[in-house]
């Protein structure tokens, strides 16, 4: 049984080859803490990840992945350097090179980035993914928090990837495994499909969008909402994906796709560049998005239709006739083609 000892500023962590004096704590999470440390007897500064005693499985996985990634040239592959690992009163301690700040903090401080600044970051991270792919490794947790600037003052836009706690070999993936932060999670992971290294490319795309926008492309915190956002932005997954996914049967985001498509169609007609071809109020009032006629054939939409009619303040007579048409399966709206 390991004896617990307080981890405080000024504490000396005795490693296998060096001692490390804790200067300050610069990060904390479910795994433990990250301390900025001075190497005893030298001027070198390092970052020491101090992992909680009770976390075992994730530690072993991260150590295994760091050992594999150690085959790479860390500077050329733009991954963080691991200098040393040791045990300190039951805590696994990993000594890394000291970096500056992560891209999330950078955007909070500076705001969104221009494309000229995003390009070199994109190039470096693509080289990282290329290097990881050559080893058959999936990072599986691409997000702005896990990409750090080396030195924002002297080496602007130079970055390295960190945190391989969720990394895995591509041959060891299992269908239905959950990985990646929700806002950066590839649809095949959410749908419960087999996945490959390409989920890291999805994550990188979301990271680059974050840098440009200053906020997440899919700023949500649950699986249902992430798929709704993806469908609204990029369209529905293919029929093959929906049929083969383990997690698709219970997803109600599929039901509302026709309604969102109808809404977008109305917006396109309202925003036509040629004023003479722009939809009129009379025509717009007969558009399926307003009449909801495109939902009348779907029994799953009846509760929504009733609620929508109530909230829109339609008189009882109108609601009666609408319900009658709904019951008879009436479909009185005519779909117009885009930009005709």
TrEMBL record:
- Residues reported in the UniProt entry to bind ATP: 49
Gene3D superfamilies tied to this protein: Phosphorylase Kinase, domain 1 (3.30.200.20), Transferase(Phosphotransferase) domain 1 (1.10.510.10)
Say yes or no: keyword Ubl conjugation present: no
One Gene Ontology term of the biological-process aspect is: intrinsic apoptotic signaling pathway in response to DNA damage by p53 class mediator
User: One Pfam family from the UniProt entry?
Assistant: Pkinase
Q: Where is the Protein kinase domain?
A: 20-290
Gene Ontology CC, one term: PML body
Q: SMART domains attached here?
A: S_TKc
Which SUPFAM superfamilies does the entry mention?
Protein kinase-like (PK-like)
Q: Which GO terms describe its molecular function?
A: ATP binding; protein serine/threonine kinase activity; protein tyrosine kinase activity; SMAD binding; transcription coactivator activity; transcription corepressor activity
Keywords for this entry?
A: ATP-binding, Kinase, Nucleotide-binding, Serine/threonine-protein kinase, Transferase
Family listed: Belongs to the protein kinase superfamily.
Q: What is this protein called?
A: Protein kinase domain-containing protein
